Amino acid sequence: MIETKPSDAMRGIGIVQSDTPILHQPTQPLSLPAEQDLATATVNDLIAAMHRARRVHNFAKGMGIAAPQLGISRRVAVVQPPEPNAPVITLLNPLVVARSDDEDEQYEGCLSFFDVRGKVPRPRRIEVETTSLTGETRRAQYQDSLARLIQHEIDHLDGILYTARMKPGAQPLPVEQYRQTGRRWSYE
Predict the structure, then answer these.
(1) Which of 103, 105, 153, 188 is catalytic?
(2) pTM of the model
(3) Catalytic annotation on 153?
(4) CA 131, CA 142: separation in Å to the nearest integer?
(5) For residue 4, what pLDDT band results from cuts at 50, 70 and 90?
(6) CA–CA distance, 5 with 114 (Å, rounded to integer)
């Protein structure tokens, strides 16, 4: 019997893996409202991929996915908060415009290399500017787990994987040794 690795399961549901060049390149912003149809189709594809991912793993911390993880080099991502039945957050052309000095360090995983988890320091609060489908600029503030999830996805849009955010010398932990699956991040 051949054992399937977590990354194989993600690859099997259409998630691009870390050895693919698109994950290491900045994405192109959408021109909204002109590319409204493309934006809507991309968001729908990302939400469908999240549903597929939930069939193979329980995401107690919430989850997100960015367009490059589906092979689309556009500045679009979606985030599902950890709270049950919370609406999906859509990020079109997102940009972090403010971040707190207050940071914490938590383990993160990534659908594009799901065999490991890595401890990543991130600001606890951020302010993000996005574009609506009609081309209006909007700002929203996020903290703690949502700030972490959103920063992770915006990094994908900038061609940055979370391993680049880990402290120097830190190494990802094999998922078999990670003991926090099924538990939310904790904040004091």
Answers:
(1) 153
(2) 0.92
(3) yes
(4) 16
(5) confident
(6) 8
